[in-house]
Amino acid sequence: MSRAAVFLDAGGVLVDPNWSRVSEALLRHGIAVSAGALAAAEPLAKRALDTPELVRTTSDHTRGWKYFNLVLEQAGIALSDATDRALADLHEYHRRSNLWETVPPGVPEALARLRALGLTLVVASNANGTVRAHFERIGLASAFDLILDSHDVGIEKPDPAFFAHGLRAIGVRAADALHVGDFYSIDVVGARAAGLEAWLLDVAGVNADRDCPRFPSLAAVVDRIEAERSPQRAP
């Protein structure tokens, strides 16, 4: 299989929310919930958001607020003025620095393996204009040939023009590129509309009904790519 480039979503694939920071912000407003409970609730919240109707009628910014409210509800926390105040604090931090600052175990190693295969690597993120500086801060920027931030591009996934912009920038045909994301209605739908193959990172296994390849980790994605590129063995 011909493959020259891999596009990777940022949040949910390369970086996760800093749930410890979220837990601490909530505690400052009198709400006790552990980082672990929030992290466990997050996949269910994402699945609830992952519908064509919601994606069509919202933006990345407005989905972000609904996302955190759903995480809290899935973690058993009632929404209140206190949760609103805590999320406002977190929103301000995210605006300045980007709250998606936890790099999951194995991500740097997986990126190094993709690099070793000679692939062009692209970050493809619906974000707020901070992704490049943020990735430099957490040490991931050097792994990529191009960082696409929807705020800078002026187009959000699932609009196929977002992917087309990236393909032109790196000089790769859509048929030779793969996109890996964590939202079916945003990442898979958008990438397919642009002519890319699309895979879904499904860490918690909540997307078994989706019609695309699913993987529990970025390392598992790289395993598949390496296997595809290995010479066929004789039976």
Structural write-up:
- By secondary structure, the chain is α/β, with parallel strands linked by helices.
- The two termini are 20 Å apart.
- It folds into two domains: 5-14 and 102-229, Rossmann fold (3-Layer(aba) Sandwich), CATH 3.40.50; 19-97.
- The protein has eleven helices and six strands.
- The mean pLDDT is 94.
- Helix 7 links the parallel strand 2 (120-125) and strand 3 (146-149).
- Helix 1 (19-28) crosses helix 2 (35-49), helix 2 (35-49) crosses helix 4 (60-74) and helix 6 packs parallel to helix 11 (218-229).
- Strands 3-2-1-4-5-6 form a six-stranded parallel beta sheet.
- Helices cover 50% and strands 11% of the residues.
Keywords:
2 domains; 6-stranded parallel sheet; alpha/beta; 11 helices; Rossmann fold; 235 residues
Q: Would you identify the CATH architecture of the largest domain?
A: 3-Layer(aba) Sandwich
What is the tally of helical segments?
11
Order of helices and strands: EHHHHHHEHEHHEHEEH
| Total number of beta strands | 6
CATH topology of the largest domain: Rossmann fold
Instruction: Compute the number of structural domains.
Output: 2
What level of helicity do the residues show?
40-55%
Task: Quickly name the level 1 CATH class of the largest domain.
Answer: Alpha Beta
Q: What proportion of the residues form beta strands (DSSP E)?
A: 5-15%
* Corresponding CATH superfamily of the largest domain: HAD superfamily/HAD-like
What spatial order of strands do you see in the largest sheet? Answer: 3-2-1-4-5-6
